[in-house]
Write a structure and sequence with these properties.
- With 473 residues, the protein is an alpha+beta fold.
- It has four domains: 24-220, no CATH class; 233-299, OB fold (Dihydrolipoamide Acetyltransferase, E2P) (Beta Barrel); 311-389, OB fold (Dihydrolipoamide Acetyltransferase, E2P) (Beta Barrel), CATH 2.40.50; 398-471, Copper binding periplasmic protein CusF (OB fold (Dihydrolipoamide Acetyltransferase, E2P), Beta Barrel), CATH 2.40.50.320.
- Helix content is 20%, strand content 29%.
- The protein has helices at residues 2-14, 28-32, 53-61, 81-91, 95-99, 105-110, 118-126, 146-156, 182-191, 210-220, 386-389, and strands at 233-241, 245-249, 254-267, 270-272, 282-287, 293-299, 311-325, 328-335, 338-344, 349-352, 369-375, 378-384, 398-408, 413-417, 423-427, 433-438, 441-444, 455-461, 464-471.
- A seven-stranded mixed beta sheet has the order 15-14-13-18-19-16-17, with no helix packed on it. Strands 9-8-7-11-12-10 form a six-stranded mixed beta sheet. The chain has a five-stranded mixed barrel with strand order 1-2-3-6-5.
- Helix 4 (81-91) crosses helix 7 (118-126).
- The longest helix has 13 residues, at 2-14.
- It is globular, with a radius of gyration of 26 Å.
- The relative contact order is 0.08.
C-alpha cells in the first residue's frame, strides 16, 4: 500500500492539471484498433515488393499488426510506443486476456491510454512487460525506440531465464546503450530476434518502423512466456504434403513437420491454403515452440516460361534434386524469384565449365550454380559454373568446438557457442555419430543424452552434424 501511495503522489506531481505532456491522438482508435466490419486480413496496397512484404502480410493476416482504413500499411512509418505494446501482447497470444482486463483509472489517465487499448496495457503490466514506474515516462503516441522494444520483448519472452547475459556486445555503438538496458540487448541479440545493421551498429535510439516491427513479430509469434525462445525456420523442397503434415528436403536433411491449426500459407506471393501446396514447391517454414508449422512461404516451379518445343538456356542455383534412379528424375533451379523444374535422364550431359570434366547426375549438389540448356522441360545439358562453386565447402568436413547452449529434440538439432561467442546450429540425423567421454569411458550416445553446457567437438558438412564428441572428464 505504501508503495502504491508513493506512486500515486509521484504521478499527481508529474502530471498535474494543465501539465500533460502528451495530447492523445483523437484519430488513434479509428486508425489502429480493430474496426467493426473489417476482415482480419486486409489487401494492403503499398507493401508489394517491400523487403518485409512476407512478414507484413503474415502478421496482418494473424491480426497482430493492422493496416489503415485507406488500405495502406505505411511500412516506413515509426511504430508508436502504444502500438508496439499492443503488437507484442497480440503476438504472445494474449488477445483474449487483453479484452478481459482493465487499467486502473489513475494509470489510464496519467499515461493517456485510450479506452480500446487499456486491456493491452493491463496485460503488459501483469506479464511484467512494463512496470508501474515506467508508466510515468510512457508516451503512447511517441515513436518506440529500438532499445525500448528490445527490453519489452526480452521481458515478454523471459529471455533471461534461457540465455546467459554476461557476454560483451560486438556493436560499434554499444556506448550508446544505457547500462541498465545493456543485458536486454545482449539477450535479444543472442536469441537472434533483433540484431544490429550490416555496419555493426545497434542504433538503440532509432525509432522502429512498422516494417521492422512486422519482422520482429514474425520471429516472436508463438513463443509464449514459457517458450523455447528459438523460433525456428526451415527451408527446402516439398517431397510430401497433406492436410496434416509436410515433409521438406533441406540442404542436408529431410524433415517432417505438423501443421498448426492456424497455419498461414502464401504461395507465389498470394494468400493460399495448405491444399494449394504441392511436391517440388520451394518453401520457407516458420515453426512455433512446439515445432509445428505456423507459416509457409512457398514458390512453385514456374513452368509458364517453358514451352514444350522451345530450346532455351536457364541459369540458376540448384535447390532440389529428385532422382528416381541414378540416371533419371528431376532437377529444380532457382533463378531470381522463380523456380524451374526440368526432367533429366541418362542422355543429359553434365560437365564442369572450366575443364569439361563430365559428371554423373547423382554427383550434382544442392547450391551449385548451373546453366541448363533445355528443350521444353527436358534438360539436354547441365554446365556447372565451377568458379562460383569453388568456395562451396559443404563437401568437406569442418571441425567446430564449443559449449552446447541448446538441444532441440523435436527438430533434432543442437546449438553451440565457440570461445569467440559465435553460435552454430547443426541438424542431427540417424547417421550422426554421438559419443560421450566420461570417466575415461567413451560410449556411444543419443541426442537425448547430451546436456546444455557440455563441451563438444562437432564434425559437420554444411549444417549437418556427422559426429558429435562430448568430453565430460
Amino acid at each position: 500500500m505504501k508503495k502504491f501511495l508513493t506512486l500515486v503522489l509521484a504521478l499527481l506531481f508529474l502530471f498535474g492539471a494543465g501539465a500533460l505532456a502528451v495530447q492523445a491522438d483523437q484519430n488513434y482508435k479509428e486508425k489502429n484498433s480493430p474496426q467493426k466490419g473489417w476482415e482480419k486480413h486486409q489487401k494492403l496496397k503499398d507493401v508489394k515488393g517491400h523487403w518485409a512484404e512476407d512478414a507484413i502480410l503474415m502478421m496482418n493476416t494473424k491480426g497482430f499488426i493492422k493496416g489503415y482504413e485507406d488500405a495502406t500499411f505505411k511500412p516506413n512509418k515509426p511504430v508508436t510506443q502504444l502500438e508496439a505494446i499492443v503488437m507484442i501482447v497480440r503476438a504472445q497470444g494474449l488477445e483474449d486476456e487483453a479484452q478481459d482486463h482493465k487499467l486502473n483509472d489513475l494509470l489510464k489517465k496519467t499515461a493517456q491510454i485510450p479506452a480500446w487499448a487499456e486491456g493491452y496495457m493491463a496485460v503488459a503490466l501483469k506479464e511484467n512487460i512494463l512496470d508501474e514506474g515506467e508508466m510515468l515516462s510512457f508516451r503512447p503516441n511517441q515513436g518506440a525506440k529500438r532499445i525500448q522494444v528490445a527490453l519489452w520483448i526480452t521481458r515478454a519472452l523471459d529471455l533471461d531465464d534461457y540465455l546467459d547475459s554476461d557476454d560483451d556486445l560486438p556493436y560499434l555503438d554499444k556506448k550508446d546503450i544505457p547500462e541498465d538496458l545493456y543485458n536486454a540487448v545482449v539477450l535479444i541479440s543472442e536469441s537472434g530476434i533483433m540484431k544490429g545493421n550490416n555496419k555493426n551498429y545497434f542504433l538503440p535510439n532509432k525509432a522502429i518502423t512498422r516494417a521492422e516491427m512486422a519482422i520482429l513479430l514474425e520471429r516472436i509469434n508463438g513463443a509464449g512466456t514459457d517458450a523455447n525462445i528459438y523460433i525456428s525456420e526451415f527451408s527446402g523442397i516439398i517431397t510430401d504434403v497433406d492436410d496434416d503434415e509436410i515433409t521438406v528436403k533441406g540442404w542436408s536433411v529431410s524433415k517432417t513437420f505438423d501443421f498448426d491449426d492456424e497455419v498461414t500459407v502464401y504461395l507465389n506471393g498470394k494468400k493460399s491454403d495448405v491444399d494449394d501446396l504441392d511436391v517440388d514447391d520451394y518453401v520457407k517454414l516458420t515453426l512455433n515452440k512446439k515445432g509445428d508449422v505456423i507459416a509457409v512461404k512457398a514458390t512453385s516451379p514456374d513452368q509458364d516460361d517453358i514451352n514444350e518445343d522451345d530450346e532455351k538456356e536457364f541459369e540458376g542455383k540448384i535447390v532440389a534434386i529428385n532422382l528416381i534412379d541414378d540416371d533419371e528424375g528431376f532437377i529444380t533451379i532457382k533463378s531470381g524469384n522463380k523456380n524451374y523444374r526440368f526432367q533429366v535422364d541418362e542422355d543429359t550431359d553434365v560437365e564442369m565449365d572450366d575443364d569439361g570434366e563430365t559428371l554423373e547426375l547423382d554427383e550434382l549438389k544442392l547450391g551449385w550454380n548451373v546453366e541448363i540448356m533445355a528443350e521444353g522441360k527436358m534438360a539436354r545439358s547441365i554446365i556447372i559454373e565451377s568458379s562460383d562453386n569453388d568456395n562451396d565447402d559443404d563437401d568437406e568436413e569442418t571441425e567446430y568446438e564449443g559449449i552446447i547452449t541448446k538441444i532441440d529434440s523435436k527438430n533434432k538439432r543442437i546449438v553451440i557457442k565457440d570461445e569467440n561467442g559465435k553460435t552454430y546450429t547443426f541438424f542431427v540425423d540417424k547417421k550422426t555419430e554421438i559419443t560421450i567421454d566420461e570417466d575415461d569411458d567413451k560410449d556411444d550416445a543419443e541426442l537425448s543424452d547430451l546436456r546444455i553446457g557440455d563441451e563438444a567437438e562437432i564434425g559437420a558438412k554444411g549444417n549437418l552434424a556427422l559426429k558429435i564428441e562430448v568430453d565430460r572428464d
